[in-house]
């Protein structure tokens, strides 16, 4: 019997290569290609318990990005979009979850261990578990402390930086460890030109004089789906949102900063490199967006109901 893990409480099943299996039986060979070389792609999305029942957030776009990431590393995910969405829904239902985090993962499996992967099978996993308040519940009220990392975000001429690929997260891992060692919650990473890219696992938004700015794809960012949602939401609310390069100094002089991601949702930043941002607490624009986004994911704003898909039992076993 597996030792109880606080990260994954009360979950029994994982969807693994087309079947729901017991959590402890979702195993691979230690010499799988993805273990040796980080040759995999993954997604992260949420299911929310809305006023209309459990709903996944922008699931079709997450599947599309997952497939795009796979294409960029020469991988083909051997299931249709419909099969993958059915698998997500069934895994949520099987684990009796009303709200949860969802982790789809595909990687080159066990066959050969040369760096060339295309003779290896593609293993596909979908896991679901309760995961609330990434970066800590208290950060919603008091904000996140950040530092700039000595590690830069990988450049798109080195590897496909827009792919959500497993091996690329070594940089994020090192940046987070460095930040934690220095007493900060999170790290901010620069791109190869010295402009702001993103945080370890979140996109960044900077607010100055009422204008919201966020780096574009040319800053080696991951094209975040929560980022995309917040850009649309903010513009609908009447804010000006600029997608452009952001210099490091703009971060220090910002009135507000917030981070976005599927796990983090929206998190305010209170300080960067021991420099207080604004008043050192969540600002009015950040709090407005958090409030509006919260209503959306609860199903309380019909304008954005298209972002939410019902979780219903389907035919996949």
Task: Kindly report how far apart the N and C termini lie.
Answer: 24 Å
Largest sheet, described in full?
9 strands, mixed
Give the integer mean of the pLDDT values: 95
Low-confidence stretches: none
CATH homologous superfamily grouping of the largest domain:
D-amino Acid Aminotransferase, subunit A, domain 2
Task: Using the CA coordinates, give the radius of gyration.
Answer: 20 Å
What is the overall shape? globular
**Contiguous helical run count:** 8
What order do the helices and strands follow?
A: EEHEEEHHEEHEHEEEEHEHEEEHE
The domain tally reads: 2
The percent range for helix content is: 25-40%
What's the CATH topology label of the largest domain? D-amino Acid Aminotransferase, Chain A, domain 2
GO molecular function: L-isoleucine-2-oxoglutarate transaminase activity; L-leucine-2-oxoglutarate transaminase activity; L-valine-2-oxoglutarate transaminase activity
Subunit structure: Homodimer.
Family: Belongs to the class-IV pyridoxal-phosphate-dependent aminotransferase family.
Pfam family, one: Aminotran_4
Q: Can you characterise this structure?
A:
- The protein contains 8 helices and 17 strands.
- A hairpin with a 3-residue loop joins strand 14 and strand 15 (265-272).
- It folds into 2 domains: 13-129, D-amino Acid Aminotransferase, Chain A, domain 1 (2-Layer Sandwich), CATH 3.30.470; 139-297, D-amino Acid Aminotransferase, Chain A, domain 2, CATH 3.20.10.
- With 317 residues, it is of the alpha+beta class.
- Strands 8, 9, 10, 11, 12, 13, 14, 15 and 16 form a 9-stranded mixed β-sheet that branches. Strands 1, 2, 3, 4, 5, 6, 7 and 17 form an 8-stranded antiparallel β-sheet that branches.
- InterPro entries: Aminotrans_IV (IPR001544), Aminotrans_IV_CS (IPR018300), Aminotransferase-like (IPR036038), B_amino_transI (IPR005785), BCAT-like_C (IPR043132), BCAT-like_N (IPR043131), BCAT_family (IPR033939), Class-IV_PLP-Dep_Aminotrnsfr (IPR050571).
- Keywords: Amino-acid biosynthesis, Aminotransferase, Branched-chain amino acid biosynthesis, Pyridoxal phosphate, Transferase.
């Amino acid at each position: 019997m597996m030792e109880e893990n606080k990260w994954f409480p009360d979950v029994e099943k994982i969807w693994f290569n087309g079947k729901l299996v017991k959590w402890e039986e979702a195993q691979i060979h230690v010499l799988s290609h993805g273990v040796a070389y980080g040759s995999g792609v993954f997604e992260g999305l949420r299911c929310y318990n809305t006023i209309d029942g459990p709903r996944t957030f922008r699931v079709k776009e997450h599947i599309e990005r997952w497939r795009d990431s796979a294409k960029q590393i020469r991988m083909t995910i051997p299931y249709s979009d419909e099969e993958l969405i059915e698998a997500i829904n069934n895994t949520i239902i099987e684990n009796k979850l009303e709200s949860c985090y969802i982790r789809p993962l595909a990687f080159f499996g066990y066959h050969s261990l040369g760096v060339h992967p295309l003779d290896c099978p593609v293993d596909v996993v979908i896991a679901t578990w309760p995961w609330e308040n990434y970066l800590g519940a208290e950060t919603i009220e008091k904000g996140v402390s950040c530092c700039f990392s000595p590690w830069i975000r990988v450049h798109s001429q080195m590897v496909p930086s827009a792919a959500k690929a497993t091996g690329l997260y070594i940089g994020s891992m090192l940046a987070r460890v460095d930040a934690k060692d220095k007493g900060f919650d999170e790290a901010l990473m620069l791109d190869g030109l010295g402009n702001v890219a993103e945080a370890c696992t979140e996109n960044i938004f900077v607010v100055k004089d009422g204008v919201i700015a966020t780096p574009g794809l040319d800053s080696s960012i991951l094209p975040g789906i929560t980022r995309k949602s917040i850009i649309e939401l903010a513009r609908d609310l009447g804010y000006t949102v600029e997608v452009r390069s952001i210099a490091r100094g703009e971060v220090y002089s910002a009135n507000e900063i917030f981070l976005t991601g599927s796990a983090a949702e929206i998190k305010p930043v209170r300080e960067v490199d021991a420099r207080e941002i604004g008043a050192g607490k969540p600002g009015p624009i950040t709090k407005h967006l958090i409030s509006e986004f919260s209503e959306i994911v609860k199903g309380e704003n019909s304008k954005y109901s298209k972002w939410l898909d019902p979780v219903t039992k389907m035919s996949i076993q």
